[in-house]
Amino acid sequence: MLYNSTRDNAVKVTSAEAITRGISADGGLFVPESFPQLSKDCIAALCKKDYIGRAKEILSLYLTDYTEEEIDYCVNGAYQKGKFGSEDVAHLVKTDETTGILELWHGPTCAFKDMALQLLPYLLTTAVKKTCKGEEIVILVATSGDTGKAALEGFKDVEGTKIMVFYPEEGVSSMQKRQMCTQEGENVCVCAIKGNFDDAQTGVKKIFTDPRIGGILAQNGMKFSSANSINWGRLVPQVVYYVSAYCDMVTSGTIKLGDRINIVVPTGNFGNILAAYYAYKMGLPVNRLICASNKNNVLTDFIATGEYDRNRDFYTTISPSMDILISSNLERLIYDLSGGDSDYVRDIMSKLNTDGCYKVTGDIFNKLSALFAGGCCDDVQTKLTIREMFDGGYLCDTHTAVGIKVYKDYLAQTGDKTPTVIASTASPYKFCDSVLDALGKNNPEMGEFDKVDELFRVSGLPIPQALESLKAKPIRFSKSCTGEEMEKAVLSGFLEIGG
Ligand SMILES: *Cc1c(COP(=O)(O)O)cnc(C)c1O
Questions:
Q1: Mean pLDDT across the stretch 201-223?
Q2: Which domain covers residue 281, as residue numbers?
Q3: What is the CA(215)–ligand 1 centre distance, in A?
Q4: CA 335 to centroid of ligand 1, rounded, Å
Q5: CA 187, CA 499: separation in Å to the nearest integer?
Q6: How confident is residue 498, by pLDDT bands cut at 50, 70 and 90?
Q7: Quick one: DSSP state of residue 440?
């Protein structure tokens, strides 16, 4: 299996190269040149395996340049016992006859990003052994809150790597900020950005493809890679849990093998829902993919009209990990819907860069609207949904609530009774303030960890140990910089950390 760039089909690299490089030199994203197919028999066989077994099967279809031993080592390490709480790793909670909530946040940082970012360091260090000549890998991350922490935790003290994370100063929850600023490890560095996530992501992409900076790093024996969801090594682990959730629905009798399901995903950078799309492309029986957004609803409009227009106000919401106007991974979807037309993708991405908008029409738009449904909701509706779900016996975080609300609207509009999986992307304890607000239990006098205790008192949901232990950890990182200063911060950061 080789990988093309979405902006140049002449580019063909192995999966190890795609994972080490992160992004193609032309600014495009790496995509598999074809999708391996999961037959009915194959899905039946996966149903008999546990999560680790399913992950090994699916990864080996894509990472054909990794040996079986290498895949075993990577997957066993990432999902070893104890890391994700329950043994099923991605826990499917049935909330009614046909709906399951797929809790993807039982990993070490309490957000779904762990599902991929616990595995990526293994995939990357294995890839580096195949493709590089002893260079140190330096990872640059732009985060809307959860990726940063999950990447830091995944890469901390991993030999041969350094990692630097940029987060929007005013755009993350206080727990997310605390998680990052107390990060342990000798090879890590964290910096706030005076701006929003898009500013951080644009800055990182620019530095990443700047040959001058690449040159300076090379002189110092370093090489860039990315832990953002533009990295193929982030996406392939995410395909696994959709297939696995399908298998769990079959084994629990919610559906029969071959029945179709809907998948609802609270969306920001379009990575998680793209993984669901790739599962569909592999033959997983999917009816609709439902893309849920908060008030930053650029994707809702895109799915409804084919027009992507980022020229609009940016809102800071109570679901901050979805506060994004430029969803990077949409590029991969459009590449696929266009039949792999890299010239077309290059044109519209350059339009996005210069005009901030583009429009897909005809066949591409028809394929998009046949499979995808989109919806959005604001903070008031998000809180109402948290309250309603809690009254029904289920506590969810703000992002998951956006997904649930958009799904309820979809049901009301379509009456579509297809069994449905809703991706639950974070622990409610990461967003205590907003969740307590929703439950009418907040009090401005309470400190951050009082709120954690209060949410436990109200809900009885066990407090994740990883969050509770932050209380005693000192703040290690408190620097901030502007978008223009990022370049300098990166160079000094990487040349200084870890000696
Ligand atoms: C990252 C994140 C999202 C958005 O996922 P994308 O892959 O960027 O679309 C949603 N919810 C939470 C809690 C997240 O951390």
A1: 90
A2: 87-109+233-431
A3: 33
A4: 21
A5: 9
A6: low
A7: T
Closest-CA residue to 189 (of 171, 167, 216): 167
Residue 461 has pLDDT above 80, yes or no: yes
User: Could you give the number of structural domains in the chain?
Assistant: 1
| Residue 106 · residue 397 · CB < 8 Å | no
Residue 158, domain member (yes or no): no
Q: What are phi and psi of 224, to 5 degrees?
A: -70, 145
**459 Cα: distance to centroid of ligand 1 (angstroms):** 24
Average of pLDDT values for 227-253? 96
Q: Identify whether the C-beta of residue 423 lies closer than 8 Å to the C-beta of residue 263.
A: yes
Residue-wise pLDDT for 77-135, tens only, equals: 999 998 998 778 999 999 999 999 999 999 999 999 999 999 999 999 999 988 877 88
Q: Is the CB of 267 under 6 A from ligand 1?
A: yes
Single-letter amino acid code for the residue at 219: Q
Whether 425 lines ligand 1, by a CB cut-off of 6 Å, is: yes
> How many other C-beta atoms can be found within 10 angstroms of the C-beta atom of residue 369?
14
Q: Are 26 and 37 in contact (CB under 8 A)?
A: no
Nearest atom in ligand 1 to the alpha carbon of residue 271 is: 7
Task: Inform me whether the pLDDT recorded for 394 exceeds 50.
Answer: yes
How many other β-carbons are positioned within 10 Å of the β-carbon of residue 97? 8
Task: Write down the pLDDT at residue 12.
Answer: 98
Tell me: pLDDT of 272 over 50: yes
Angle, helices 486-496/197-208, rounded to nearest 10 degrees = 60
> Residue 105 — φ and ψ, nearest 5°?
-120, 30
DSSP 202-243: HHHHHHHT-HHHHHHHHHTTEEEEE-STTSHHHHHHHHHHHH
Given a cut of 50, whether residue 499 has pLDDT beyond it is: no
**How far is 119 from 140, CA to CA, in rounded Å?**
17
Write the CB contacts of 124 (distance below 8 Å, at least 6 apart in sequence). 19, 20, 137, 161, 225, 233
Domain-embedded: residue 417: yes
What CATH number is associated with residue 354? 3.40.50.1100
Q: What is the DSSP letter of 118?
A: T
What φ, ψ does residue 263 adopt, rounded to 5°? Answer: -130, 125
